[in-house]
Amino acid sequence: TIFALSTNIKSSGSAIAVIRVSGDKTLNVIDEITNGKADGIREKPRQACLNDYVDPKTNELIDKGMTLWFPRPKSYTGEDLCEFHIHGSMAVINKMLSVLGNINDCRLAREGEFTRRALMNGKLHLIQAEGIRDLINARTENQRRRAL
């Protein structure tokens, strides 16, 4: 199971940050980071649920945020996937990433790994994956249009 910050954050942070998790242990990760209190998440796929995020080792509150659950195969990667929408301060982001990295069988994704998993699971074809890369890297209006 992998995780990564999906939001491009400036050094000063932002209002909101999104962290994605994908893989077989995604529900375990949700349970750990919410201390088993992600009420209704399984019954409400693709709907935002407000949750407290805690460090499972200390029970310390990290943040309050929205959790979205996308069960396989109807997710970007074709795997179980969730998004944690948190406040975008660097302190909150760094704590969440640190805690996720300490959960068993959960590791930081390599660059492009979410898209590679989508490609391998038949959710995208190669041209679409290249288009996503080009769109992410687009700096001009012309580059944005070509990527789409």
TrEMBL record:
<dbReference type="GO" id="GO:0005525">
    <property type="term" value="F:GTP binding"/>
</dbReference>
<dbReference type="Pfam" id="PF10396">
    <property type="entry name" value="TrmE_N"/>
</dbReference>
<dbReference type="InterPro" id="IPR018948">
    <property type="entry name" value="GTP-bd_TrmE_N"/>
</dbReference>
<feature type="domain" description="GTP-binding protein TrmE N-terminal">
    <location>
        <begin position="1"/>
        <end position="123"/>
    </location>
</feature>
<dbReference type="GO" id="GO:0030488">
    <property type="term" value="P:tRNA methylation"/>
</dbReference>
<keyword id="KW-0547">Nucleotide-binding</keyword>
<dbReference type="GO" id="GO:0002098">
    <property type="term" value="P:tRNA wobble uridine modification"/>
</dbReference>
<dbReference type="InterPro" id="IPR027266">
    <property type="entry name" value="TrmE/GcvT-like"/>
</dbReference>
<keyword id="KW-0819">tRNA processing</keyword>
<comment type="similarity">
    <text>Belongs to the TRAFAC class TrmE-Era-EngA-EngB-Septin-like GTPase superfamily. TrmE GTPase family.</text>
</comment>
<protein>
    <submittedName>
        <fullName>tRNA modification GTPase MnmE-like protein</fullName>
    </submittedName>
</protein>
<keyword id="KW-0342">GTP-binding</keyword>
<dbReference type="GO" id="GO:0005739">
    <property type="term" value="C:mitochondrion"/>
</dbReference>
